[in-house]
Amino acid sequence: MLTLILGPSGSGKSVRLREELRQRARSRQRSILIVPEQFTSSTEGALYHALGDELSAYVESYSFTSLAETLLRRYGGAAVPTLSEAGRAVLVRRAMDEMMDKVVYYSRQRRSAAFCQKAAETISELKSAGIRPETLADYANAPGADKDKLGELALIFGTYETLLAQTAMDPGDRVELAAKSLDRAFFAGRTVYIDEFDTFNHSKRAMLAAMLPVADVTVSLCCDQAPDQADDGVFSGARRVANTLKSMAASAGVPCKEIRLTQDMRHKDAPVLAELGLLLADPTYTPEAEVDPAAPAITYYKADSRQAEAKAVAAAVKARARAGVPYNKMAVICRTVDQYLLQIRYEFRLQNIPLFCDEPTTPENTAPARAIHAALDLLRGGLTTTALLRLLKTGLVDLDRDSQCALENYAYTWPLHAQDWREPFTRNPEGYTDRMSEQSQQDLQRAEEARSFLVPRVQKFMDRARNADTATLTAQIYYFLQSLGAEEALQKLTDGLRACGDLPNADEALREWNVITELLDQMVHLLPAGEPITPADYDDLFTLLLRTTDMGHIPQSMDSVIFTTAGRMRLPETEAVFVMGLAEGEFPQTPGDTGLLSHADRDTMIALGAELPDCFENRV
Question: What pLDDT, on the 0 to 100 scale, is given for residue 228?
Fold first, then answer.
């Protein structure tokens, strides 16, 4: 049985699903709830809060990805490593290098990190639509298509797939593989509920098609009218999804039932916001609610600059906090973080308001990443003062501060070449003077102790890593950092931060180390085994991996105002939301190109039968 729960936002679809889950749990019946990847953590918390210790054991919360991993562990296939988003970009770069002079259209951009990232996004989009390289090549030859561009993308896509088969598995491919092994035994005695989705890509549809014949499935969709009602309104995409699900159920011989919810439950205590929702859905609607001027549900503020906007938001947040509203019940939303981040941080700091900024962050400038770059510089250029001091300044060399300072001052005083670094230091740290003071003697001793600790380890690393393949070079980099005492230095740093009460930064330092070591593991999986790699190529690919990895942030306090963008937000229950930049063309933002496909490319492919999830009309 397929059950569709349809209704506009705030009509109680999720509430109804959770009530059904509660009733089944009370009857000791097991259920599966599937939500998007980014909502799994908040969903698990909401389920535990609603069901408690005992009943929450009867509900398993998954995303399609985690469900696929569970199935692969049960039926086989989980041992194959999964390609990350950053790994896609590195594999695209490898594909471009493999193609060599076949790359013509994108020849100027082939080594650009931004291009590799966009190409990876494009391949992900094509795979989510079920488009194969040969299909894309056919689209390139269609009338009106950009043959040179799409044809070369098809070649890059095909080479990428060949390399992918030798290294890892794409997340979407894992979902399709898991769908093929799905059987009735897995869902025995369990009903499947699917919530928070507005569309299903090719791999998710494959999983749904495998589910429908063997399980009862309930899907909630944000849809204001009957699925068979054709129009190009706000919810036309959701109606198409509902019709697709009904067609899949009919093909599987599964009955389908629709439940339609129309009442605005979210804004039952705020009729003005409910009226606004009706007006946005239908511009011809005439509002009926009367606004109380003393307590408006919506307040507009006109500012002369972004700084003035941030100042007004900070003042309003502070006023509500004084009135008793917790900071974690307030949120600030904008379209693009870069336009408001500095202003918001400045004004909130002046008002002493705790703030959590949900911004993407790469590990490119972390201490472990800088240490690896310094090691590769040493391997590429030999013993140079610049590379050695760059390594020293990462803070991951287990030397005391006085010894590091003495070594740095000595290197600045005397121009040192590679042979000078290999021999004991004997010159006066003060430079060209007639005599050496007692302090200079101590500084010379410290500098020599630091040199004798650092240089032999560097030389040993260079000897072992020269002309190595990817796996050997990666291992030698890690052993080199260990020999320098990186883990001990990191432990001393975190102990010192914890002693000062700075627990968030202590945890962040450990997390940075873990992220970088995981990226080193990815380098081994992504690059061919047994083939020598130059330090320059390794450095380029590792930099690309760093720039395309999103570390995210961990909130430093449970009671903080959330600052995020409309594209990343998943707000908890809030009492006040402040929207910044509510201007024409900015919020909502005028749709732009994503990846390497233009709107014209997508429209051409859609006209030929492609089910791309991001056509221009849907984005508008």
Answer: 63
Spatial distance between the Cα atoms of 467 and 379, rounded to a whole number of angstroms:
10
Q: What is the pTM of this model?
A: 0.77
Beta strands 217-222 and 190-194 are parallel
Distance CA 347, CA 353 (A): 9
CATH topology of domain 299-359+555-579: Rossmann fold (3.40.50)
- Do 470 and 527 meet the contact criterion of CB atoms below 8 Å apart? yes
Do the beta carbons of residue 389 and residue 451 sit within 8 Å? no
pLDDT, mean over the chain: 87
Three-class DSSP category at 579? strand
* DSSP strand pairing (330-334 vs 256-260): unpaired
Instruction: Give, in order, the Cα–Cα distances in Å from 203 to each of 64, 73, 159, 173, 208.
Output: 9, 18, 21, 7, 9
**Backbone region of residue 300 per phi and psi (left: phi > 0; alpha: psi in -120 to 50; beta: other values):** beta
Task: Please state, in angstroms and rounded to a whole number, the distance separating the CA atoms of residues 72 and 294.
Answer: 58
The CATH fold assigned to 2-78+175-260 is Rossmann fold (3.40.50)
**Cα–Cα dist 284/48, whole Å:** 42
Residue 171 to residue 301: CA distance in whole angstroms = 44
Rounded to whole angstroms, the Cα distance separating 432 from 440 reads 12
Residue 28 DSSP label: T
- 109 pLDDT band (50/70/90 cuts)? confident
Distance CA 435, CA 457 (A): 32
Q: Which uninterrupted H or E stretch holds 88?
A: helix 85-99
Which residue in this structure is represented by tokens 């060209």? 432
For residue 341, the 8-state DSSP code is H
The CA distance from 267 to 297, in Å, is: 11
